[in-house]
Design goal:
This protein is of the alpha/beta class. It contains eight helices and six strands; from the N terminus they run αβββαβααβααααβ. The chain has a single domain, classed as Nucleotidyltransferase, domain 5, CATH 3.30.420.10.
Length: about 230
């Protein structure tokens, strides 16, 4: 990673680990209802929040699922997320396209719910250190190709560089074509909760393990987790 961005991230993570706050590194991913290609960041409904963090030597996963498609249902989901974030108080927020999508959408939801103050969400997206893994991953994979290129998470988890990691690799549960992906995810949420939960869980879980591989293992010279499924 160039321009010292990697050095900055390593310094922050080193401090978090040294001060005994490994459990306050949190991976976050949103699954949303986007049925059209240009429907992103237009106030779309959050179907699920997938969360993963290190806890007692494991990757501990948590899903907060939308129970019904209604304003009240989404408010309940946000309140549950808020309570969890107040408990964890993340210092580092990790994701894939985190800064391009998940954080902006949560900011949008805070504005939509301006009559309520979700301090857990607000503090997390405004005060924690954000690490969007798509950038360190693109520089890592540049070692295996001609220059750094941003790949989809589905391609990243299948890359030979990461084949040794115990990733869930659940992207194959949904066709990755732009035109149908959003509809497939929404239909899975409505009609196939079992596979939907597996799909959603996989993203945050795998991003956290990729974070461990690229940041924690070089720093600590040892794996720090086994996966709790």
């Amino acid at each position: 990673m160039n321009h010292h961005h990697g050095d900055l991230a390593n310094r922050v993570i080193e401090w978090v680990v040294r001060t005994g706050n490994l459990e306050r590194i949190l991976a976050l991913d949103l699954e949303t209802k986007v049925l059209e290609e240009n429907g992103f960041l237009t106030g779309e409904t959050i179907l699920c929040v997938s969360l993963a963090r290190f806890l007692d030597g494991n990757v501990c996963n948590k899903l907060i699922l939308l129970e019904e498609e209604s304003p009240e249902g989404e408010t309940k989901l946000l309140a549950q997320l808020n309570d969890f974030l107040l408990e964890v108080r993340p210092l580092v927020l990790v994701g894939f396209n985190l800064c391009g999508y998940d954080v902006p959408l949560l900011n949008l939801k805070l504005r939509e719910h301006s009559n309520q103050i979700f301090w857990g969400i607000k503090d997390t997206i405004e005060r924690s250190f954000h690490l969007d893994m798509k950038h360190p991953i693109r520089f890592e994979l540049a070692k295996y190709s001609n220059g750094p290129k941003i790949c989809s998470l589905g391609k990243v988890v299948e890359h030979p560089r990461f084949k040794h990691l115990p990733l869930m690799r659940t992207k194959s549960l949904v066709p990755q074509t732009v035109g149908s992906k959003g509809l497939e995810i929404f239909n899975m949420w409505k009609n196939d909760k079992r596979n939907f939960k597996a799909y959603a869980k996989g993203d945050a879980n795998d991003v956290l393990l990729l974070f461990e591989e690229l940041f924690l293992r070089p720093m600590l010279h040892t794996p720090v987790t086994k996966v709790e499924v």
